[in-house]
Design a protein that fits this description.
The chain is mostly beta strands. The chain is built from one helix and four strands; from the N terminus they run ββββα. Strands 1, 2, 3 and 4 form a four-stranded antiparallel beta sheet that branches. Strand 3 and strand 4 form a beta hairpin.
Amino acid sequence: MNKVILTGRLTRDVELRCTPGGTYVADFTLATNRPVIRDGERVADFINCIVWNKQAENLAKYQSKGN
């Protein structure tokens, strides 16, 4: 299994859903700044993420847009 650690901010509030089997799923987009500045502006990458189970519940409960 691969592991990635990203640092950034949420672009919108976390969308929490529950599957028919009772598993929680959270979708969110993370904006991360690139270390390179082009033409005097910072460039950001927007990464779509999915979190499952208890981590999804905690993310939706404690995080919001901009955090």
